[in-house]
Amino acid sequence: MDFPFTPRYIPMNRRRRIYEGKAKILYEGPEPGTLIQHFKDDATAFNNKKHAVIDGKGVLNNRISEFVFNQLNALGVPTHFIKRLNMREQLIREVEIIPLEVVVRNVSAGSLSTRLGIPEGTQLPRSIIEFYYKNDELNDPMVSEEHITAFGWASPQDIDDVMALAIRVNDFLSGLFLGVGIRLVDFKIEFGRLWEGDMMRIVLADEISPDSCRLWDQSTGDKLDKDRFRRDLGGMLEAYQEVARRLGILNDNSGPAPTGPTLVQ
Ligand SMILES: Nc1ncnc2c1ncn2[C@@H]1O[C@H](COP(=O)(O)OP(=O)(O)O)[C@@H](O)[C@H]1O
Ligand SMILES: [Mg+2]
């Protein structure tokens, strides 16, 4: 390494791409231990069997996820999020991803309804946490704590931490959405290990957006999430915009008219 070491600006096209997933790209960050998370407009479902490009989705998810992660950070829920850099990108801490999709459910929908024959929309007696092994080739199969510890994907202590954090995220998100007339049916989150010297902390990673949540309008039951795409309902971008608008993220043009010179007749 050259000394003195000066951080350099890396132009977009020179950045080292670490990983390209279905919805996001990870680039090397400006400092060691950081990454840049870039939100694409791609929408995929059923493990990539269905694909489309929805112009502007990435921008909305970037903003919605920033909003949620900032508030979680402020509440003391440890997350990978550092700051939003631009319309599509955010600076995050690089973590060692635990290969689990952690799903929290409040209301029955999707695969839970299909598998157990519980009608969609049934309020669950309590929140339920499920684990899926994050592996596209295997279609993200559902696994139990026994599988997770036996195969070494996470320790019993890791699982305790993950579950405690998942419940805190659920409590926060449920209240946040309830306050803007949205029912949080379920959501998927991911966690990673953050090493600080010899110390390891489990932190919330990836994203929280209408791509990863089921959000139903409280009064009409309208779906405001990726199910619009999965089920060919149309209006996906409008639904995501509506979520952003209700959270106060988008300027909705319906506010007071801008002040400025007025025409005098
Ligand atoms: N802080 C982080 N450090 C390292 N990897 C991360 C971090 N946050 C998210 N990831 C990983 O980056 C990828 C994000 O891209 P995405 O398009 O969602 O991928 P996928 O198609 O695997 O779901 C995911 O695989 C996720 O596990
Ligand atoms: Mg993903």
Automatic annotation (TrEMBL):
It catalyses: 5-amino-1-(5-phospho-D-ribosyl)imidazole-4-carboxylate + L-aspartate + ATP = (2S)-2-[5-amino-1-(5-phospho-beta-D-ribosyl)imidazole-4-carboxamido]succinate + ADP + phosphate + 2 H(+). Pathway: Purine metabolism; IMP biosynthesis via de novo pathway; 5-amino-1-(5-phospho-D-ribosyl)imidazole-4-carboxamide from 5-amino-1-(5-phospho-D-ribosyl)imidazole-4-carboxylate: step 1/2. It comes from the Bacteria. GO terms for cellular component: cytosol. GO terms for molecular function: ATP binding; phosphoribosylaminoimidazolesuccinocarboxamide synthase activity. It is an enzyme of class 6 (ligase). Keywords: ATP-binding, Ligase, Nucleotide-binding, Purine biosynthesis. Its EC number is 6.3.2.6. GO terms for biological process: 'de novo' IMP biosynthetic process; cobalamin biosynthetic process. Pfam families: SAICAR_synt. SUPFAM superfamilies: SAICAR synthase-like. Residues 18-246 form the SAICAR synthetase/ADE2 N-terminal domain. CDD domains: SAICAR_synt_PurC. Belongs to the SAICAR synthetase family. This is Phosphoribosylaminoimidazole-succinocarboxamide synthase. The gene is purC.
